[in-house]
Write a structure and sequence with these properties.
hpI Integrase, Chain A; single chain; two-stranded antiparallel sheet; mainly alpha; elongated
């Protein structure tokens, strides 16, 4: 948290034999992502509550390489349970029924709408190429970058040259 970044180094898979960690699908999936200051603040607050809970359960302080989001006993949060709990939370808060995985798409769409370049968006998502990002999110680029936007950008560039 001191570096305001998140390292994606592995993923958790739920199999018939149980949970197992595995490397990301591609080498591009292994990445470091910068976090906004407000997210770091939320994570620090969450970590304080998590440490308090661990002490109450007699588990002590988590190790530096422990997972951030776990079950109460520190074990990995099973993906199916996370999806189920997310759905229940969304429903109880009367929010639109959006899957947990859809947050990834919302993140990408928000970056595109904010004008973040395709290479940066692609790297944050762990795509092997910006072409993959363009294929998956073409609709978001179409909405964010109209021809009128292009005309305004050229106008601004020409005005700066005067």
């Amino acid at each position: 948290m001191d570096n305001a970044s998140l390292r994606v180094e592995r993923s958790l898979e739920e199999t018939a034999a149980g949970l197992r960690f595995k490397p990301p699908k591609t080498r591009h999936g292994r990445r470091t992502i910068r976090l906004p200051a407000n997210v770091v603040d939320m994570l620090r607050a969450y970590n304080r509550r998590q440490i308090e809970q661990r002490f109450m359960l007699g588990l002590g302080r988590p190790a530096s390489d422990d997972l951030v989001f776990t079950l109460a006993d520190g074990s990995p949060y099973p993906p199916d349970k996370l999806s189920r709990d997310w759905g229940l939370a969304v429903k109880s808060l009367s929010l639109p029924q959006v899957t947990f995985h859809a947050l990834r798409h919302s993140h990408a769409s928000a970056l595109i709408a904010a004008g973040v370049d395709i290479v940066t968006v692609s790297r944050r998502l762990g795509h092997g190429s910006p072409a993959i990002t363009l294929t998956v999110y073409a609709h978001a680029f179409a909405a964010a970058n109209t021809d009128a936007t292009a005309a305004k950008a050229i106008e601004a560039a020409m005005a700066a040259r005067k």
